[in-house]
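Possible race condition, two jobs.
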Amino acid sequence: MRTITFSLPAHEQKQIQVNMLISIKKSIAAANNRPHKMHTHTIESYPESFDDRAAQFAMFEQLKTDGLVDILKERDECMSPKDLHGDMFCPTTNPDTPEKQLMLERKRHDARCYKQGIHVMTLVVIGDEIDSVGGFIGNDFYNSGYDTDFYRDAIERVKNSYPEYISQILSACSK
């Protein structure tokens, strides 16, 4: 049996730092664009979670570069926009929203589904399909929370096979 060893050269350590900065900037932009999703918190109260998310993203990207992990995006031809409606556009469950507004939002939602597609995302770790989740329009999977669940799961599974390498990557994230 052959043992494969991974190492982290200086240029890849630098790329991890770049990926962390990219992730932090995206998190701040998302928070600024959707303040209603911030609940009662302010952007200033989130730096730790932004850092954690950035580290997970950077680690995942490094593992992806090495061919150890991936997230596959496949169009779900069996799911229709109506399958995603639930009670989002129901006047009974949304009595504060005018019925015409609900109809308009439903039409926009359906158009977006047809234009961007409904997708299933699959986590692959060391060649094995580990998990999948569907019902995402376009790139809505990213920044949904499911993406960080995938990152975390992938990192843990790779850590079982390559603990020293994960330690190296983690160290690069904390520089």
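Job #2 (started ~2 s after job #1):
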Amino acid sequence: MKTFAEEERKFFEGYEIYGSRKHQYARHRAVLDSWRRVNVGTILDVGCGYGDLVPMIQVEFPKFVRYQGVDVTPRCIHKAIATCTDDRCHFQEGTVFDISLVYDAVAAIGIFSKNTDDWEGLVAATIEKMWQQTKRVMSFTTMHPCMWEVPDTDRVCDERQMLSWILELPNVAGFQLQRVDPEYVNIATVYRKC
């Protein structure tokens, strides 16, 4: 069975296709905008890549206390560590399943776009684990870009499945689904009851 980690390593070789600065900025902006209604001091970025979300967090939430980036791609973590000079920011190789602390906000931008043997099981488990690490708000992208062939599945179906998992999470105060890129990306944001 393939894992997100294996797929992520292969996927990141094609980062230029998926990760245009314009699209990346739009996704990051949508996530940070959805967090404005809650008090965000600590942030977990699952699938942080090179830590590109950090500069926007520094502007939008200048009083943040801690940022933790986690990614399965070693070269991303090494570059993030080498380029980020903010002492409040920490990076580690791994997945959300390696995280034990709880954060005010959790982001997962682009990690659910992989075609694995048990896509639904991995996504459901990952969403559940991210929610366990969330004090206030969790945001993630829902997509299957046209550049990946996913047999017997489409974006609408996947989003409906993800939304059904959200409704099963405990202590949900509300959620929103925001369209970002007209081609393929939406941001799902889930707010926790305080």
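The radius of gyration is 15 Å.
Logs attached separately.
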